[in-house]
Design brief:
Number of domains: 2
CATH class of the largest domain: Alpha Beta
CATH superfamily of the largest domain: HUPs
Distance between the termini: 20 Å
CATH architecture of the largest domain: 3-Layer(aba) Sandwich
Keywords: Cytoplasm
Function: Required for resistance to DNA-damaging agents.
Domain UspA: 7-142, 178-294
Helix content: 40-55%
Strand content: 15-25%
Family: Belongs to the universal stress protein A family.
CATH topology of the largest domain: Rossmann fold
Strand order of the largest sheet: 3-2-1-4-5-10-9-6-7-8
Radius of gyration: 21 Å
Protein name: Universal stress protein
Length: 303
């Protein structure tokens, strides 16, 4: 899980903002002994409008803005040595991609946008871009601090074959939980198929799907086998029932989870247009941080 390239954190573009992504990235890095790279797009549309077409004034202003950002980063790092990447980019998405590719981090940390749901659907924010394209895990954070110790909730689909995405999710959750001396649990959300589907499908469905009770028993067994395989105590596993996003959100809020760890898969071009995948929809609904893990065979088009 560790990497010589360490953790890459993207700052919000407001110079005076509190930058929770950097605060939490530093906590992870200090615990795991990993280096930190801090990236910020210092482009200022207001500055460009003010200086007009005067290149000399623009370059001077960009240098001043860069110095202000470097000073701000040093203040926030509070004595921790970090690598700073401060540069103006008008094409924010390309800059995001190039930074991830060049830094090749083991983890990307970004502040989840507070923008409304409608705007997030019209304009793809940074966290969604990173979830869809970055080749490494992506931690999307909110402003509230983690508890001591922090609580990790790993959402798994234990009916999948051993060694797949579920293994990556639980291994990533366990690694960071151990670094922070946190608490770890695994949950599985059982979303029951529509009863009409059960009646219509009939013999086409597997034997365990004949009724709600048999479905529940099947998933309870699968979760127990997963826990045994991953050396998780039985009391640290929970079977939830209901719509996935709403159920996970409610559970994390009720149980006080600090980080929800989920998996995602690479989708094709058409599927990427269908917003509402679990990881992305969670970001618009949950109040806790979300760590999104990719499978080992994830192929990023950013490479």
């Amino acid at each position: 899980m560790s990497s010589d390239n360490g953790i890459l954190v993207f700052l919000d573009r407001d110079l005076k903002a509190p930058q929770p992504a950097l605060e939490k990235a530093l906590r992870l890095a200090r615990a795991a002994g990993q280096p930190v790279t801090v990236a910020v797009n210092s482009d200022s549309p207001a500055m460009r409008r003010a200086v007009g077409f005067d290149d000399a004034r623009r370059e001077s202003a960009e240098r001043q803005i860069a110095k202000a950002w470097e000073k701000r980063i040093d203040e926030l790092a509070d004595g921790t040595a970090v690598t700073k990447r401060v540069a103006p980019h008008r094409d924010a998405e390309t800059a995001l991609r190039d930074t991830v590719v060049e830094c090749a981090p083991s983890l990307v940390v970004v502040h989840t946008s507070e923008e409304g749901t409608l705007k997030r659907h019209l304009f793809t924010p940074r966290d969604w871009l990173l979830i869809r394209h970055a080749p490494c895990p992506v931690l999307c954070v909110h402003s509230q601090p983690w508890g001591t110790p922090p609580r990790f909730t790993a959402a798994v689909e234990p009916e999948e074959k051993p060694g797949g995405l579920d293994a990556a999710v639980i291994h990533t959750a366990r690694y960071w939980s151990e670094q922070l001396h946190g608490e770890l649990e695994a949950v599985h959300v059982l979303e029951h198929p529509d009863e009409t589907l059960l009646l219509v499908a009939g013999e086409a469905l597997p034997e365990y799907a004949a009724s709600a009770n048999s479905i529940r028993e099947y998933h309870e067994k699968a979760l127990a086998e997963f826990a045994k395989r991953e050396n998780l105590p039985e009391e640290k596993t929970t079977l939830l029932e209901g719509p996935v996003t709403r159920t996970l959100t409610a559970y994390c809020e009720e149980e006080g989870a600090d980080l929800l760890v989920v998996g995602t898969v690479r989708r094709n071009t058409v599927e990427r247009l269908l917003l509402g995948a679990t990881a992305e929809s969670l970001l618009t609904r949950t109040g806790n941080d979300v760590l999104v893990v990719k499978p080992e065979d994830f192929e990023s088009d950013w490479r």
